[in-house]
Structure formats: structure tokens, C-alpha cells
């Protein structure tokens, strides 16, 4: 258990020490403030308050789960797997007193950590940004916190599936391009072929969809499948 904890701490430490990750986190924290400024400016010009203070966290959450967090998770997964393979640092990690399954799990825990941090920072920033919009600032605070907390699970599943995909590519650029195209296809295909939405994991990343037991069960199934196949790939791959 100690070796697993050390592996988790090591992954988080490596993630934090990368300057680009700190910059991305800063951008995520500033995004609600920029959104509030843009909305406030537009509403003052139009003379109509379409978005009030209590609505901002939910608007921000929709942007987070659709664009920001998937990008965060993709960059983190590429750095933790494909990037370390290219830099030849993965071999050094495998020399540590930790088994491959534990090391793989530690990297998945990192994705969960990143999801939680981004969601928490964005929620706090959204509340602060709400001060600059009309309406009661404190209305719906607990409800918005619950929505952000609920979003953690589908984002974790998305991260696990991303880990499975990026392990099949030898370069970070290829992994990034393929994952972006795949994500866009899975998001856009149900608009053309609605029946596909039932089987697409991205159809269940919306927080409101988790109210149904079947949606939650689908995410659990995709998570188990992605984790086991991803671990099998990681354990059997020559790094």
C-alpha cells in the first residue's frame, strides 16, 4: 500500500511541477470571471438580464464538462502515458518498487485528482464571478456545489477511456489529434444518427443525465471496461 501511495504522490507532484498545468489551472479559474464580464457587458448593452448570478455556475459547468475538462484530461493522460514513453521516463518509473497495475492505477487517480481540482476551483471562481451579475449571490449555492460534485464521476470515466485510447499511440501529437477527432465524432454523430447516442459514453457526461439509473449503470460499465482494458494494455506494453 505504501508503494501505491508513493506512486500517487509522485504522479501528482510531476503534474504540478509542469508549468503548463499551472497555467491551464489558472486559465480555468479565470474563465468564470471572463464569462461573467462578457455576459454582464452584453446584458448591460441589451438592457435585459438573461443570465443572473445563480445561473452562472451551471453555465460554467456546461462549458467545463464539454470543452475545458476533456481538454485537461486529454493533456494529462498524454503526459502521463505517451509523453513519458517518448521521454523514456516510463522505464525509470517501472524500476520503482511498485507493480505495473498499481502504477497504472496511480495515473488514473491523477486524472481523478485533476478533475476534482478543476471542478472545485471553477466552482469557487463561479461564485465569486456571480457577484458581478444581477441577482442574489447566495441563491442555489448548495445546489450548484452538488451539480459540480456530481460532474466528477462522468469526467473520471471520460478520463479512464482517454487513458485507454492514448496508450495506442507512440507520439503525443498523434494521440492528441486522434482523441480530439474521436471526441468530436462521438459528440456530433448522435446529431446525425440519434440511435447512436444510446451507446455513446459522451451522451452520459451531462450531469442531468445521471438522474436515471440506466445512465449511471452505462457509465459504470464503460468505466470498468476502460479501466480493465487500459490496465491490460499498460501491463503488457513494452515501454
Verbal overview:
By secondary structure, this protein is mostly helical. The chain has one domain. Helices cover about 75% and strands about 0% of the residues. It contains eight helices and no strands. The chain has helices spanning about 1-15, 20-45, 55-85, 90-95, 100-130, 140-165, 170-190, 215-235. α3 runs parallel beside α6, α3 (about 55-85) runs antiparallel to α7 (about 170-190) and α5 packs antiparallel against α6 (about 140-165). It starts with a helix and ends with a helix.
What structural keywords apply?
transmembrane helix; mainly alpha; 239 residues; 0% strand; ABC-2 type transport system permease protein; membrane; transmembrane
List unreliable stretches of 5+ residues.
none
Question: Which percent range describes the beta-strand content?
Answer: under 5%
- Helical content stands at over 70%
Please work out how many helical segments DSSP would assign: 8
Outline, from the CA principal axes? globular
Written as H for each helix and E for each strand, in order along the chain, the element string is HHHHHHHH
Q: How confident overall, as mean pLDDT?
A: 85
Give the terminus-to-terminus CA distance: 24 Å
- SSE-based structural type: mainly alpha
> How many individual β-strands?
0
> What is the total domain count?
1
Radius of gyration, in Å, reads 19 Å
For the biggest sheet, the summary is: none
